[in-house]
Amino acid sequence: MHTHRLTLGTTRAIEILDLTAMVRHWVRETGVRQGLLTVMSPHTTARITINEREVALQQDMVAWLEQLAPADRPYGHNRAPVDDRANAHAHLLGLFLNATESVPVVSGELVLGSWQSLFLIELDGPRPLREVQLHLLALD
User: Fold this and answer.
1) DSSP letter string, 44-112
2) In a designed cystine with 10, which of 40, 86, 96, 122 is the match (CB 3.0 to 4.6 A)?
């Protein structure tokens, strides 16, 4: 088992950050040829997903998330937030996204479709520090 932690900051309320190059680089560094990678967000208001990396589509995704759970609604959680952030909308959006994604590793490479990338989806930004946990089970 190989583990690694990515750390990054976010700059917008809802933001889509492409992790693919960083994750590919780390997987190659491990030398693992065959395995299963789990990518995990330890945050309830930042999630992991696999989707297409295309600017207009990502703008559509952000707009859709903003409409699905608008930040300015009178949510009960926002009356007494435990972390001093009125972020009920971000927790609600998290219901529809994954905390983890699993990706096979074959011949030392991530098995992703031609148009697929790995993303961290920030739902409660900006945040100076977000973590992404990588766990690679080697099957070599």
Assistant:
1) TTEEEEEEE--HHHHHHHHHHHHHHS-TTS--GGGGS-TTS---HHHHHHHTTSBSEEEEEEETTEE--
2) 122
